[in-house]
């Protein structure tokens, strides 16, 4: 009886290992780690660079604004600060992703003119300038008879 329990636990851990090592789970784990590192970069950019620049022009700290109703204080200012910070972070993130997408943009290639066409009689690939099909020797329409 004890062997079934250990083999059951062993199977459980082997199933868990197979689940954890699947590509999707590993990709998701890498995404979470990179996302948290990127969050630290964006927060630093907003808090250390963007917010002080905005602070030069506007006094954007509303955290002391409170609406007092009886004994209850509603922190409207803290909420406004959160909204402003969200908009700043969203805008900086938008600009960052837009810049990254521009770096990854591939130039659009113009379509090349076809070098071959299909013979309407035998459906073989032939040169675009062919007057007769080399496979079935049919005269192709739209071309005058070649004079030698």
From TrEMBL:
The record's Gene3D superfamilies line, in alphabetical order, gives: Large-conductance mechanosensitive channel, MscL, domain 1 (1.10.1200.120)
Record's PROSITE patterns? Answer: MSCL
SUPFAM superfamilies in the record: Gated mechanosensitive channel
Q: Where in the cell is it found?
A: Cell membrane
Q: How does it sit in the membrane?
A: Multi-pass membrane protein
Q: Which Pfam families match?
A: MscL
The entry's keywords: Cell membrane, Ion channel, Ion transport, Membrane, Transmembrane, Transmembrane helix, Transport
InterPro entries attached to this UniProt entry = Mechanosensitive_channel_CS (IPR019823), MS_channel (IPR001185), MSC/AndL (IPR037673), MscL_channel (IPR036019)
- What's the chief localization of this chain? membrane
Locate the transmembrane regions by residue number: 25-46, 66-97
| Family from the record | Belongs to the MscL family.
Q: What does this protein do?
A: Channel that opens in response to stretch forces in the membrane lipid bilayer. May participate in the regulation of osmotic pressure changes within the cell.
Quaternary organization: Homopentamer.
Annotated protein name in UniProt: Large-conductance mechanosensitive channel
Which species is listed as the source? Faecalibacterium longum
